[in-house]
Amino acid sequence: MIYLDHAAATPVSRKVLEAMKPYFLNDFFNPSSAYLPAKKVASEYEEAKGKIAHAIGAKANDLIMTAGATEANNLAFTAVSPDGEVLYLKTEHDSVRNPAKRFAYQEIEVDKNGRILMDDLKAKISDKTELISVALANNELGTIQPLAEIATLIREVCFDRLSRGVKTPLYLHSDASQAMNLLDINVARLGVDLLTLNAAKVYGPKGVGALYVSHDVRLTPLTLGGGQENGLRSGTQNVPGVIGFAEALVNAKEHLNGNRKKYAEFRKILLDGIKDYELINKKHSLDNFVVLCFDGLDAERLVYLLEDREVYVSTGAACAASKGVRSHVLTAIGLSDSETNGSLRLTLGETNTKEQILEAVEIINEVVAGEKARIHA
Amino acid sequence: MPKVFVGMSGGVDSSVAAMLLVEQGYDVTGVYMKNWSKDLPGMKCPWAEDLADAKRVAVKLGIDFEVWDFEKEYHEKVVEYMLKEFKKGNTPNPDVMCNQEIKFKLFFEKAMEKGADFIATGHYARVASPSRLLRAVDENKDQTYFLYRISEEAIAHTLFPVGGMLKPEVKKLAKEHGLHNAYKKESMGVCFVGEVGMKDFLKEYIDIEPGEIREVETEKKLGVHEGAVFYTIGQRHGLYLSGTAGEVNDGLPYYVVAKDLEKNIVYVSKNLNDSHIWTKELKLKDVLMRGEAKDVLVRLRHRAPLVEATFDKDTLHFENEIKRPAAGQSAVIYDGEICLGGGIIA
């Protein structure tokens, strides 16, 4: 098997699994229980949260642990008052677009690389805008957004509002799910007020995420109950999940530089070896994303043909593909229908070796050639 | 090479049908008919997964694949018909309508326009030259009950590649050829109603009023119902009956025997011999026959055994009493293994 879809899911690493195991077995206690063994679990849980927080330059108390990034994105939007307006980048994931659509919303346009158009953002901010959501790196293209620049603009807007006596707050939210393996994330440097993290994309368990919340943001809980996570996310803590997340994130952080180098090399092998394509994510992209357009071909057919050769790739976000709808991301960067249809996403990760990448080049070339021959027959 | 458009649903039968056509040397194009894509709250029609399954098979067979969107027409011709019939108190069969109006009409016509020599589906049925519809070899899977209203012109240009096979053979072939959907769970009934059932679907579309359940013999109120349209004559489940155990519930089940839609009353009876339930005669409407016969075999439900009857213009006469099927269902008429046609039970 050659797995080239690490943006969709990553395997739980051996180390992470080992770290989690005791909390399924001997240390299974509810952290809220009174006796000492439970207290110990509670303190190890807090310690794990502390590690996650530390990895992004925050404190344990700034994190609300959730059941994945989708929930964290939904929770972020509770910062908005009912009459507030929201802006999000046109290429955002559905877990941002759909909660945003509960409010008055506008989409911020992107250029052909998928980068935010700052002038469009400026033009769309009104005195009622309360939240701007821009993913640190896009999940279909890997495009990295200039969050610090956006944060600077937001600070200017806030200053201007205050000087005019307008009290509406304006927050910056970012989903960093895809970026955690390759970028050194620091909330202060990024200038975000809310940041979504996802264990499932960094070789941690699925169904575990976190929302970083800066001190001045007031959220409303979506899940009510026993008041865990500062009252913002009730429910017995997912201790093994959070322990695993911490382990995974610490590992990812340690390997940032090595990963970047390795993926840049693999990316070059793919781009040099594969024939007759157009590269879609030319600039500002994460090193492990390779989006190729085979114009005139149906990329979905390529996915099934590659599946037969045990090479696993995707046509876009897994959710979009399974719904049978055209990718809103590829449309947003100005691709035609035929280009969108012909686009294949390869995302590299820890399961890959150089030999695999060389083999993938051969197989992709064979499959593409075969499909072209079929069409012209 | 004759050109064939094969309707591919993502299921094992139509996948094997497509595979057999390719093996037989036809010029094959797979088509997924998109008939319904609306997600109702809590009810998900798995069309996108079905489409992906169908396409995967087409790709592995190396054939062209297209999606034909009949959603609007399906809504007009099938869904609206179905809702209209339910509102009248009948129990319609949407699959019969779908075959008549969509698969063997719109799909057929579009395929012909695109230069097809034939269409094909994964139905269990057979065609005898030039335009006779025959029951499938696998009696247990025979689907002519749902196909009896399709036109002779369509029959003459249709291939049923699995109609001569037994279901276990079809599954075996699928496995041997590495078609992944050999292991797929069989879909039952109408796609868009899915697993949740007709009642929950109808609740989304029909305004319903709770009403009384009465015993037919005594007019006595026994309980309440959620809306008369949900009840089918002959049905014994889902009756909310009140009253003391001794009075009402002596252990014998109640059956729905009649409905008064005007007054929104559902009538029930414990008497299994109630005249509403049994009959020796069935009057049909919208009769559609592709040939004549007097002494016939009749099927009153999909997979129900064939019953001997005599057919006279629009009425079926049975020697022994039969349990009366719900109005709106179909009676399908056979002469031996030939499916002659049938009609809707009035």
List the helices and strands and how they pair.
The complex is a heterodimer of chains A (377) and B (346).
Chain A lengths: L1 E2 L10 H11 L11 H20 L7 E4 L2 H8 L8 E5 L4 H7 L3 E5 L9 H7 L4 E5 L13 H17 L7 E5 L11 H4 L3 E5 L10 E5 L25 H16 L1 H18 L4 E2 L9 E5 L5 H10 L2 E2 L5 H5 L5 H5 L4 H5 L1 E5 L6 H23 L1
Parallel strand pairs in A: 1-11, 3-4, 3-5, 5-6, 6-7
Antiparallel strand pairs in A: 2-8, 7-8, 9-10, 10-12
Helix pairs in contact in A: 1-8, 2-8, 3-4, 9-14, 10-14
Chain B lengths: L2 E5 L4 H12 L3 E8 L12 H15 L2 E6 L1 H17 L6 H20 L4 E3 L5 E3 L3 E3 L9 H4 L4 H5 L1 E2 L7 H10 L21 H8 L5 E5 L5 E5 L14 E2 L3 H4 L6 E6 L4 E5 L8 E12 L5 E5 L7 E6 L2 E9 L6 E6 L2 E8 L1
Parallel strand pairs in B: 1-2, 1-4, 2-3, 4-7, 8-12
Antiparallel strand pairs in B: 5-6, 6-18, 8-9, 9-10, 11-12, 13-16, 13-18, 14-15, 14-17, 15-16, 17-18
3D architecture notes:
The complex is a heterodimer of chains A (377) and B (346). In chain A, the strands form three sheets. In chain A, strands 2-8-7-6-5-3-4 form a seven-stranded mixed beta sheet, with helices on both faces. Chain A has a three-stranded antiparallel beta sheet with strand order 9-10-12. In chain A, strands 1-11 form a two-stranded parallel ribbon. In chain A, 41% of the residues lie in helices and 13% in strands. In chain A, α1 packs antiparallel against α8, α2 packs parallel to α8 (239-254) and α10 crosses α14 (354-376). Chain A folds into two domains: 2-10 and 256-376, Aspartate Aminotransferase, domain 1, CATH 3.90.1150; 14-254, Type I PLP-dependent aspartate aminotransferase-like (Major domain) (Aspartate Aminotransferase, domain 2), CATH 3.40.640.10. The model of chain A has no long low-confidence stretch (mean pLDDT 95). Chain A is globular and about 70 Å long. Chain A is α/β, with parallel strands linked by helices. The two termini of chain A are 30 Å apart. In chain B, the strands form three sheets. In chain B, strands 13-16-15-14-17-18 form a six-stranded antiparallel beta barrel. A five-stranded parallel beta sheet of chain B has the order 3-2-1-4-7, with helices on both faces. In chain B, strands 10-9-8-12-11 form a five-stranded mixed beta sheet, with no helix packed on it. In chain B, a hairpin with a 2-residue loop joins β17 and β18. Chain B has three domains: 3-199, HUPs (Rossmann fold); 207-269, Adenine nucleotide alpha hydrolases-like domains (SH3 type barrels, Roll), CATH 2.30.30.280; 278-345, Elongation Factor Tu (Ef-tu), domain 3, CATH 2.40.30.10. In chain B, α1 (12-23) runs parallel beside α2 (47-61). Chain B starts with a strand and ends with a strand. Chain B has nine helices and 18 strands. Chain B has 346 residues and is an alpha+beta fold.
